[in-house]
Amino acid sequence: MMPVKLIVKQGITNPFGDHRTVKQAFPSAIPSKQSDPFLMCDFFEMNENKAQDEDDFPIGWHPHRGMDIATYLRKGIGRHGDSLGTRETFDAPGMQWMSVGSGVEHAEGGAFDGLLEGFQIWINVPKEKKMADPRYGTVSSKDLPLVELEGGAGTALVLAGNAFDLRGPFETVQEVQMIDFRIETGASLDFRVNDGLDTAILYFYEGNMISVNDKSDIHVGSVILLDADSDEYRSFNVKTKDNKAGVMLFAGKKLKEPIAWHGPIVMNTDEQIQATYREMRSGKFPPKRVAWDYKKSAAFPKNEL
Predict the structure, then answer these.
(1) How far is CA 81 from CA 140, 158, 270, 300, in A?
(2) What gap in Å lies between CA 236 and CA 55, rounded to an integer?
């Protein structure tokens, strides 16, 4: 089994600039150098109010450049709009993802009244791909690969990468493996991380206590960094006690490249960050977008809605 390098507590952040908080596995708990290529994992549980009209989004329009992003919902209904002319909703468990490349603007939320629970995950991309054309995908429950684990140990939802002879639908640029494990009470899970992935993180986001590779009494909210450097030791074991558990696996191939990060923009140099904000101020961002006003549904061509 892979040695456990570090066990730390998740952070709490305010990404929306108001009272709303999220639980953050990285970079708050695991810094970017250790979580590479993963930039951010926010776990949110919040009550959502239905949008007042088609152009109302609780998480308003904002830019991104230079990373891959997934919003993965466990409860609720997702809703999304972007500068590529996308307007989509999806049910939980489900996901919408973007490889934002040279840039997108997007807005989210407001599909229903009730509890919204899930993750927003950012993954870095190689420097030569940061200005690629953006791509988008929506994944409903029926299209999210669900695996029944051996011996009735629980289930696994394959979000990205190859696992269980399946491939997750999040089309990341950098090679990763992302799986949401739901482990039954008193069960044991053994899993082998794919060869060549030298980052491996477990995020225990729901439950009571688990053990990982015989490290016992690990509490909910713990982020476990595993040693994935060895070609020989590729596996981990998770055991539950008196509750079911939700455990996310984030495994990936490190980029080992400089990171210049300012808000929703992730590049390699400060000069690139400054150039991006100059584009925004001049109205040239995003460089690839639809010809109509994507923020107003009334402006959409009839065949695009």
Answers:
(1) 16, 25, 29, 12
(2) 45
Model confidence pLDDT, tens digit, residues 70-129: 999 999 999 999 999 999 999 999 999 999 999 999 999 999 999 999 999 999 999 999
d(CA 29, CA 10): 5
Residue 294 falls in which region: left (phi positive, over 0), alpha (psi -120 to 50) or beta:
alpha
- Gap between the Cα atoms of 147 and 199, Å rounded: 23
**Tens of pLDDT, residues 18-36:** 777 999 999 999 999 999 9
Distance CA 104, CA 64 (A): 6
What is the model's pLDDT at position 302? 83
Residue 303: the pLDDT is: 77
The gap from C-alpha 88 to its chain's centroid, in whole angstroms, comes to: 18
Residue 14 scores a pLDDT above 90: no
Cis peptide preceding 258, ω within 30 of 0 = no
Q: What is the pTM of this model?
A: 0.96
- Say how far residue 169 (Cα) sits from the centre of its chain: 12
What the chain holds in terms of domains, given with CATH numbers, is 4-252 (2.60.120.10)
Residue whose structure tokens are 């979000």: 159
pLDDT at 255 over 70: yes
Q: What does the pLDDT read at residue 104?
A: 98
